[in-house]
Amino acid sequence: MLWTQRLWLRLQTLFRGGRVAQQLHDEVQFHLDQQIAENIAAGMSPEKARHAAKRTFGNVTLVQEDARRTWGWMWLEQFAQDLRFGARSLRKSPGFATVAILTLALGIGANTAIFSVVNAVLLRTLPYPDADRLAIIWSGLGSVNRAVASTYELFEIRQRTKEFDQIGGIWVTNGTLPGEGDPEQVKVGIVTSNFLPILCPRPALGRFFQAQDEAPNAPWTVVLSHGAWARRFGSDPSIVGKSVRYGDASAVVIGVLPEDFRFYLPGGFPSNVDVFYSVPVDGSQPGGPGWLHLIGHLRPGSTITRAQAEADAIATQIHNWDGNQNINGLRLSVYSLQADDVREVRGTLLLLFGGVGFVLMIACANVANLLLARSTRRLRETTVRAALGASRGRLIRQLLTENLLLAAIGAVAALGVGWLALRAILAARPPSLLNFNRLTPDFTVLAFTFLVAILASAFFGLAPLFAAGRLNLTQSLKEGGRSTAARNRWTAFLVSAEVALGFVLLAGTGLLMRTFMNILRVDPGFRAENVLSFQISTPKYEMLHELQQRIAALPGVQSVSAVSHLPLVEAANWYANYWKEGASEEEQHTVMADHRSILPGYFNTIGATLLRGRDFTESDDAAHQHVAIIDDVLARELWPNEDALGKKLNVSDSPKGAYQFERDWAVVVGIVKHIQCHSLTVMVRPQIYVPYQLAPRPVSIVILTAGAVPDLGASARAQVAFLNKDMAVSQVAPLTDYLTRARSQSRFASLLAASLGAIALLLACIGIYGVLSYSVAQRTGEIGVRMAIGAQRWDVLRMVLGQGLTSAALGLTAGLLLSLIVMPLLAGLLFGVTPADPVNYILICALVLTVSTLAAFLPARHAMGINPIAALRHE
Fold first, then answer.
1. 4-38: b or e for each residue (b if 16 or more CB lie within 10 Å)?
2. Measured between alpha carbons, how far is 740 from 548 in angstroms, rounded to an integer?
């Protein structure tokens, strides 16, 4: 039962420490009194008996400590003592504590903020059932990759797959929200009947689509989002089964999605879709257009690798149909939905995460320098404690505890800094991060913050611990607390490390900021100033033409037109194959172009340049010869040494109605300068423009004004309502907004990089200033002697400046070498500048040297003002 008694004693010591300590004191005193009594009985005087008993018994305090170490939680008591001592030490040095805590708060807080984004975007699984088994399937044909698939391709994949148990598809377009009241344009999802259950386990009300909903004579059924149900139908719990007005027809509501359901899909996919209806999928119409985003659910035990191998085999099995067209070049690409969802931002976030890691190391180096300086001031105290019997291990534990306390306080402060930084990041985030509304700190972020704090305390405590471990009592007592050359070398090394890390961050910042400036200077192929746009659903040409005329008559309006896809809008795209007369069968399925449906006057309205030929006219309809306008990129590709005007081009259009696509020969009547439709930095595809009469679909109205026109949006809405009160207007915005969004990711990266670079430069300056200020304080006597024997004030200035700039120059050299290794990692984020750009390095070197000189000048100026008589008297 010995172990139970010992356990009971340990628990009593832990929870009743005062009582157990008193009992131990009483027991030791009892044995001492017994020894005194025996000595008196042996003939000693009481005074001699007491001294003899103490000599026999030994050091009472040591005996009590040995007993507590055996019976109690001695390590916990010592840890509590060290914490109290550390807290008192920080309270006695408020300047040191404030600077150290703020430095750590900046370093750890920046890491917390960026990790919150990384955790939400890259690490946290998507909020779907079996998210790790979800995959997105992209189609590829000719020069196009990552394209949507046709219903024929989906049918063939479903028939042949063994790795997926479900594959569904969705296409999102604009439509009018069903129900009564004012029209509201929303996103409408056209889905296969099995699509919603792949991402959402069950609806909040009703059911999802089933096979009978796609029968030829079945009533039209829809599923509503929770938001649409609440806005349009007042959260009516009996909505399921009711028939509601939907455009010119009616539809039966069969289900409502949960309130927290959102789409987290790649490719600019909208997060909120308000209305869904289903379409059947069969293989009866091969050769149809691609329009479906395919999402698959892997079978248990399957992997993305196995699914990709199967997709490659399926792609090769799909071959000629109807004797004319073929898709022998079809490619199918399978990616994890989680990984593909963050493909565009992964590189940026990981590089920023590496950047804040550099900031943390700079902060740790700064705090290490502060601790080294503080340990030098406390050298006499440490030496005396060691001389009185404190072991090296005890001294090191004391320093470790103080460092841990400092890091813990810094971590608490870092949570506040991180929260503020995260608010700023959310305000500046680009559209590629808009879908991630889950950017909120959680337990993972909290654990990460304190883990970083612990690691940071270990890192910045290495130098003081190393110095404490090599303490030489005799030498330290002789030095009397003065600095040593070894400590000066440590501080110089840490300053050089700060400068090197700061240089790397500033070099990256310079490259990203120059990239952003280059993007600002890119010619998008149009002028966005004074152009207002808004979207409407598919109107008849007659209504659209009259709307164009009515808006053109408004005061301040110079030109009005319409386009099916605005430039730089992340929305559903329209592209298809094209070929010239005489093209081989292989050439007919090799390249694709973006197709756009426009009204006459579009190029003039947005300021695009019509290089040759003419614009469309009202007579360019299905009853006349089909015509097209192409961009200069496509003209050079097809007819490099010829004039493209008058040539025939095979294009995809739909003269019989919206989305009833067919192949037609069109005559090229105009050539326009290429417009950047997808990105400001990349030419994705050439462009083909057809008259709206040949391809009716939802359009964006564009209005060019002479300047700011008050209430123009409201006036335009009124004109739409006058022509069709059931037609909704949405996304009323100036065209400059889309330019701003296209630049937002580069702006986001450059802003964050600039913030990190500024913090790094500030911390490096604080490090240089702090080290030199402490060095001047330690060398006051030496400087006084130098000045007393003839040194001039300028000599002292050169000496102190030389010390600071030597460390900065060594850091610059190391930073330059490190940058040559790190900067190529930024290549994917750069535009118009190379990672090894010499101008960038020259500018950063000049900046760092200038700021380092300013940081070193202040202590140097203080050294120049030292009075040699006062310094020698102090010495």
1. eeeeeeeeebeeebeebbeebeeebeeebeebbee
2. 27
CB 338 within 8 A of CB 126: yes
Task: Find out whether 685 and 535 touch, Cβ atoms under 8 Å.
Answer: no
Q: Looking at the structure, do residues 295 and 154 belong to the same domain, yes or no?
A: yes
Q: What pTM was computed for the model?
A: 0.78
CA atoms of 238 and 240, how far apart (whole Å): 6
Range of the domain at 717: 538-727
Task: Please tell me the total count of domains within the chain.
Answer: 4
Contact between 757 and 560 (Cβ < 8 Å) = no
> Alpha-carbon distance 819 to 376, whole Å?
34
Q: What angle do CA 132, 134, 136 make, to 5 degrees?
A: 135
**Which amino acid appears at position 804 of this protein?**
G
Instruction: Name the burial class of residue 590, with classes exposed (0-12), middle (13-18) and buried (19+) by CB atoms within 10 angstroms of its CB.
Output: middle
- C-beta separation of 258 from 113 below 8 A: no
Q: Is residue 80 within 8 Å of 385, Cβ to Cβ?
A: no
Q: Retrieve residue 42's tokens.
A: 């042996």
CB atoms within 10 A of CB 243: 14
- Position 324 scores a pLDDT of 42
Q: Residue 593 pLDDT more than 50?
A: yes
Residue 546 has pLDDT above 90, yes or no: yes
Question: Are residues 833 and 747 both part of a single domain?
Answer: yes
Show the tokens assigned to 122. Answer: 């890259």
pLDDT band of residue 22 (cuts 50, 70, 90) is low
Question: What string of DSSP letters covers 447-477?
Answer: HHHHHHHHHHHHHHTHHHHHHHHT--HHHHH
pLDDT in tens, 134-149: 999 998 876 677 888 8
Q: Are 866 and 780 in contact (CB under 8 A)?
A: yes
* Token pair listed for 188: 């409408």
Residue 132 lies in a domain: no
Indicate if the pLDDT at residue 388 is higher than 80.
no
Percent of the chain with pLDDT over 70: 80
Give the integer Cα–Cα distance in Å for 567 and 605: 13
Q: Which helix (H) or strand (E) holds 402?
A: helix 392-428
In a domain, residue 789? The reply is yes
